[in-house]
Amino acid sequence: MSSYDARNPVMVGVSHSPTAATAVAWAADAAARRGRELCLVHAQEWPAGAAPKDRHDAPDQAWASHFRASGRDLLQHCKDAAAEQVPGLRITTRLEDGHPAAVLREAAEDAALLVVGTHQVSGPGEAVTFTTVGRSLVGHPPCPVALVVGDTSCYDPLGPVMVGVDGSPASAPAVAFAFEEAALSEADLLAVQVRRPRRGDWPDAVQESFIDVSEALAGWREKYPQVVVREKVVMGQPAVQLAEEAAAARCLVVGSRGLGGFRGMVLGSTSRTLAHFAPGPLAVVPQAARTD
Fold this sequence. Notes:
This protein is an alpha/beta fold and 292 residues long. The protein has two domains: 1-153, Rossmann fold (3-Layer(aba) Sandwich); 155-292, 3-Layer(aba) Sandwich (Rossmann fold), CATH 3.40.50.12370. 36% of the residues lie in helices and 21% in strands. Strands 1, 2, 3, 4, 5, 6, 7, 8, 9, 10 and 11 form an eleven-stranded mixed β-sheet that branches. The longest helix has 25 residues, at 61-85. The protein starts with 9 loop residues before the first strand and ends in a 7-residue tail after the last strand.
């Protein structure tokens, strides 16, 4: 049984990567807006042949002590930065042993939101690719996972929160998360559905998609009346179109499961593809996430 609860802390994976600072800053802001504790998690993967952490008489114990001290120093540095950014924020730290992906996946069982830093690489279309840790976490933890790009020049932090919808019940948690994020950020919300083009599928398909989007948003408009909502329908390959539309958004929200077939958009394959091409923060919300 999942222990996911929206009242749990916001967790962020901390590493020596240059993207860590951006991830911590984004997570601190997310925790403050939600009134949640921020938990910084750093996983140390001990090199082969290193002394076990519980061996105090090992010849290389001095090296092991320095190795662990390095992790504590990293956590303290990130904690100080988050505390300076958000005075009064409740912050805890966790230094764990193991592979980062495995450690974060387990930690996410007690998180309201898991944040992982990403990096940008040069390539066709200036694609964004996420670290192996971030990619491996998409769709697995019971809580939403936010993959945060280290280079903030690729997207608009003042833009709307964008959510991909496909009219399926599986997209409901993503819509709920997007409305909450928009309300907490005092941002507009842009709901987008992507249709795979078929001969003779226009314009009837557009009208059908707008109905799908309206139904997906039903109830949430009333719960968050302060959020200005816009709807949009585009044709093309879902992941590619969502990435293009998200260039003007502060973050993109998608579900981790959805419908199959040409109408399916909030698919595992789509969320994983977006882990390579999303221009800014990408929040992947599992179907198990709470929506009340």
